[in-house]
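Ticket 4471: requesting a sanity check on a complex prediction with tricarbonodiimidic diamide. Repro inputs:
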Amino acid sequence: MNLDANPFPYCCELSHSALVIIDMQRDFIEPGGFGETLGNDVSLLSAIVPACMQVLDAWRRAGGLVVHTREAHRADLSDCPPAKRNRGNPTLRIGDPGPMGRILVSGEPGAEIIPELAPRPGEIVLDKPGKGAFYATPLDGLLRQGSITHLLFMGVTTEVCVQTSMREANDRGYDCLLLEDCTESYFPHFKAAALEMILAQGAIVGWTATSAQLLSALADAGRQ
Ligand code: TIU
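Returned structure tokens:
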């Protein structure tokens, strides 16, 4: 597949590529979850859901590997460092009971991926205790086992978990692309800055492209 990406074209083979969907959880996108406890207006984030659904649907139909991550901790919080739990002055801390169950705890309603993007059998679903998808998860091994070399990212938030995961992936040798209209931040200027940082200096972290560009590349690949 060839994508008309920034800062220059991005080439990947579907059989060696994965769509990595970062933390599209109720805790970040709906009121009453972790995002809101940090003082954020969560309404901005749901705007990307239709574009994410379109990409996920096309990617599934093409037969590509899908990885979903969730930022979620064990019920006993043994994988949540006190430095993370005690940071700042949130209205509720990780593990506290909120309107969608315990904040950012695996298995609680708030930690689930939003129903529109719910994982299907056969897709990889990983709970991660950090911001990056590679820290304390089996992701790198699973991707190498599947001969995956190219990662296409969507999800939230752009400059926190998405950018951290892309940087981790970049250092591990993956060619990474971020779908611009399938990622969002609570701070629009941070999203814009993150996109700029990623593709500056000759794609120092990776490429960016729109969902339309990926859909068109998938359609072209399907015709061949
Ligand atoms: N998934 C993710 O980005 N976690 C965050 O805590 N993001 C914020 O922007 N707070």
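Notes from triage: The pocket of tricarbonodiimidic diamide is lined by residues 23, 28, 38, 71, 131, 156-157, 160-161, 186 (CB under 6 Å). Leaving this open until the requester confirms.
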